[in-house]
Amino acid sequence: MNVLGAGERLIQNHFHALTHKNYRYFWLGQCVSLVGTWMQNIGQSWLVLTMTGSPFLLGLVGTVQFLPVTCFSLFAGTIIDKFPKKTVLLITQTAFMLLAFILSALVFTGTVQYGYILVMAFLLGTINAFDLPTRQSFNIEVVGKEDLLNAVALNSMTFNLARIVGPAIGAGMMAYFGAAWCFLLNGLSFIAVIYGLLQIKPVAYVRKKKANTGVFKEIKDGFLYIARDPLLAKTILLVAVIGTFGFNFAVLIPVFTKSVLHMQEKTYGVLMSCLGVGSLIGALAMSVRSKQGPKLALIVSGAYLISVFLIGNGLNNVLWLTGLLLALNGLCNILFSTNCNSTLQLNTKDEYRSRVMSIYTLVFAGSTPLGNLFAGIAADRFGADGAFVACGSLCLILISVILLVYRHKDRDMNKQDALAT
Questions:
Q1: How many angstroms separate the CA atoms of 388 and 341, rounded?
Q2: Residue 240 CB contacts under 8 Å (≥ 6 apart), including other chains
Q3: Is residue 120 part of a domain?
Q4: Contact assessment for residue 65 and residue 122, using Cβ atoms and an 8 Å cutoff
Q5: Residue 70 above 70 pLDDT?
Q6: What is the rounded distance in angstroms from the CA atom of residue 123 to the CA atom of residue 391?
Q7: What angle do CA 87, 90, 91 make, to 5 degrees?
Q8: H or E segment and range at residue 19
Q9: TM segments (predicted)?
Q10: Is the distance from CB of 346 to CB of 294 less than 8 angstroms?
């Protein structure tokens, strides 16, 4: 009884989003599915690098996979609020499952080719363009505003626990049984999240259609809404920088493992897990302090520390130090992203939320094609260590420019307010 009581108090105090039955179904399904997703991620990266031996071609897969998010996420934001988000998620998760089964079949039968992987990556990205903003804006329908930051932090904790477990299992599966099993198990894992979604009864928000409003006008209104709010605008710009140059681990870590550390699959899995361990610690920390709400100071400090740790990764070739720096990077990634996500959702009106989160998706995940392409070219030309330094340095410079510009804008606004009074 004491153990049960302690568990209940822990949930009430630090993981209070789990007190919502709908969220528990959603969260438990994600716990299973995300492990499979990370198994597929590292399986795909290692398969491409083994088939081609080219960091550039590996970066091109990432570019193709995230290009649809860049192209379609803005349109997705104007569409998904017009339908129940639960329905949209059931469609996207089923499509993810089918793609995983197809890729596993191609590898099992020995018919997989680089071109096929590019096509599959593009289809995966197209589904993601609708799935990502839908999942982001679905959280508030299952937990409400009060527990939103805690739900975002728990989602991050789940994602990064999967980042630890998934690569570890995936690396073992690749080493002993082959990459095809990573893709097959990923396909099976979607059964859990689909079952969870079927049990959920959310407080759905469906935006009413307005007369004479086209898709492009709605997209423009979303951008103008952000531009008029300095907090939203500053947050979106910082996300754009870190999303483009700070999150290219899928390209750089496998190349760094092979060409700088001279290691193989198991070490690659360990390094990806180190990134996940740090992220998990960050997510736990955010869950504990979630009742205090998101903080701009954590966004800014997280962005700067991500930049510094990226540069540190490029300036060393020691395995344990690489693992430590990746763990620290993972921790700062979560401090940054959970505070950005919650800041945007809590400071956005309901009728704009999906559009704002689709723009967030565009700059966070949709910027990945540019980032992956840049990282792949830099790794080809300067090595993975040089690419880490280049990405970190660009982050430092661009973050400083954004903060300097908005400091001047804030100063001008304060002067205008003083004159008006």
A1: 25
A2: 363, 364, 367
A3: yes
A4: yes
A5: yes
A6: 27
A7: 90
A8: none
A9: 56-76, 175-198, 236-256, 268-288, 295-312, 318-336, 357-375, 387-406
A10: yes
Tokens of 6: 């302690």
The alpha carbons of the chain give a radius of gyration, in whole angstroms, of 21
What type of residue sits at position 404? L
Whether 342 maps to a domain, the answer reads: yes
Q: What is the DSSP letter of 290?
A: G
Q: Is the pLDDT of residue 394 over 90?
A: yes
Provide the token pair at 26. 């959603």
Token couple for 171: 């690396």
Q: Which of 5-14, 69-78, 334-343 shows the lowest per-residue confidence on average (mean pLDDT)?
A: 5-14
Distance between CA atoms of residues 328 and 318, nearest Å? 15
d(CA 41, CA 49): 12
3-state secondary structure (DSSP) of residue 62: helix
Average pLDDT over residues 307-321: 92
What lies within 8 Å, CB to CB, of 375 at 6+ separation is 59, 248, 251, 252, 387, 391
- Domain of residue 189 covers 2-202+214-420
Phi, psi of 200 (to 5 degrees): -80, 140
pTM: 0.73
pLDDT (tens digit, 9 = 90+) per residue, 202-218?
765 555 555 556 777 88
Token pair of 8 as six digits? 């209940």
Distance CA 39, CA 273 (A): 11
Q: Residue holding tokens 């400090």?
A: 301
Q: Which two tokens stand for residue 238?
A: 């910082």
Candidates 65, 30, 47, 37; CA nearest to 248 is 65
Q: How many domains does the chain have?
A: 1
Q: What is the CATH number of the domain that holds 50?
A: 1.20.1250.20
Token reading at 347: 């400071």
> Of 197, 68, 192, 229, which is closest to residue 133 (Cα–Cα)?
68
